[in-house]
Design a protein that fits this description.
3-stranded antiparallel sheet, 45% helix
């Protein structure tokens, strides 16, 4: 008869399991890269990234698989799991994928977490895609907490990279870099004298406060754009406002206004400053190196110190609808494109169709493609995501 293994605290084994579950669980949703090519080279990333693996059913599946693997390894090592340990490990296994999806929701790319019940995109429009200030406030309080030398080294390296990004990137005003550097130093000093649990609480509280600052900033910036759009463009209906903060800067926002009338639609680009007494719209950093394919026209419209529009794209609603009806490639793109554009026909009868959000270079970006004169092979395995701009595609 097999001797029953008694339950005992997991100690070092438990810590290792938590590290592994956190790292693996936070990265599993990006497994969609492994099958993206099922929709072809051009459309695979657009249609499949942040797709099925970024949904609540997938998060539950990943959590079950991770917890099952950890439980199996514990059994094979003769390590019984106490009820409290099981609950902790199960919670970490579920938190990783959910946190990944939540952070992806936070930027302007979006997710559709409620598939298959509801396949629409959801956009948080609150975080820069790689926000260095998050790394600072999370890592600094935890830098003294871990016994593992490898984990400590990883945290200090993360701090160094985040601080370097603050001082290197031209998007971060010098005053913000100084302020965040001083905040990091303060967190390190405060955390050094705390117990591990208090350090964890400080890390979580700092992250939540910073995230809330960006969320509130996004709502203020979008509200400002909508209010001024109603005044500046009284004959148009506002469809959407896309907002993206500058890195480490919740006061300055890159904004895209999408509006329309009966037969035309406009995409207007600009900068919004929610605290112009500190940084006005003219002083806000922006992507000076951008040279997009979108046929943008200069636009010089100022709405006080808080908002300026600098460029606009003009499109035809009937022409966009005709492209959607006639070409399967355009229909596929429009399941992703939140801010669609198309170029006039070139001499060879081709044209470029894409999404203004990620059009930064004169060559094709990942969200642009060249539409040939004749029907090409249609993308395969097109997922059922609802087109973000049904308000332009409906008659």
């Amino acid at each position: 008869m097999r001797e029953r293994v008694s339950a005992r605290p997991l100690e070092a084994w438990s810590r290792t399991a938590i590290y592994v579950l956190s790292i693996v669980g936070n990265n599993l949703p990006d497994l969609d890269f492994s099958y993206a090519r099922v929709s072809g080279k051009t459309f695979g990333y657009l249609l499949q990234h942040r797709g099925y693996t970024h949904t609540l059913p997938a998060a539950l599946l990943f959590a079950g698989l991770l917890f099952g693997v950890v439980s199996l390894l514990a059994r094979r090592r003769g390590q019984a799991l106490a009820a409290g340990d099981r609950g902790l490990l199960a919670g970490v296994a579920l938190a990783g994928p959910l946190l990944h999806i939540a952070m992806d929701f936070g930027n302007n790319y979006g997710v559709h977490p409620f598939w298959p019940v509801y396949s629409a995109w959801f956009y948080g429009d609150s975080f820069f895609i790689l926000e260095p200030s998050f790394w600072l406030v999370i890592s600094a309080p935890l830098a003294f907490s871990f016994r593992s030398r490898a984990v400590r080294i990883a945290l200090w390296l993360t701090l160094a990279v985040a601080l370097g990004a603050l001082w290197y990137r031209p998007f971060v005003p010098r005053s913000h870099a100084i302020g965040l550097s001083l905040l990091t130093a303060g967190l390190l000093v405060a955390a050094r004298g705390m117990r591990p649990l208090a350090r964890l609480g400080l890390s979580l509280a700092s992250f939540m406060l910073l995230a809330l600052t960006f969320v509130v900033g996004s709502r203020l910036a979008k509200g400002l754009v909508r209010e001024q759009a109603a005044r500046l463009f009284p004959g148009a209906i506002t469809l959407d406002v896309v907002a993206t903060p500058m890195p480490a800067n919740p006061f300055c926002w890159s904004v895209i206004l999408v509006d329309r009338d009966a037969n035309r639609y406009w995409v207007r680009l600009g900068q919004a400053a929610i605290f112009p007494a500190w940084l006005d719209a003219d002083a806000c950093p922006y992507d000076r190196g951008s040279n997009p394919t979108t046929p943008l026209l200069p636009l010089r419209l100022q709405a006080g110190a808080g908002l300026r529009f600098t460029e606009e794209y003009r499109g035809s609603v009937p022409e966009l609808q005709a492209l959607e009806n006639a070409r399967c490639e355009v229909r596929a793109l429009l399941r992703f494109a939140r801010v669609p554009y198309y170029t006039p026909r070139a001499p060879d009868e081709t044209r470029i169709v894409g999404d203004v959000r990620y059009d930064r270079n004169p060559d094709l970006d990942f969200s642009d493609f060249r539409l040939a004169p004749q029907q090409a092979n249609c993308p395969t395995h097109v997922p059922p995501w609802l087109p973000p701009r049904t308000d332009l595609l409906s008659p």
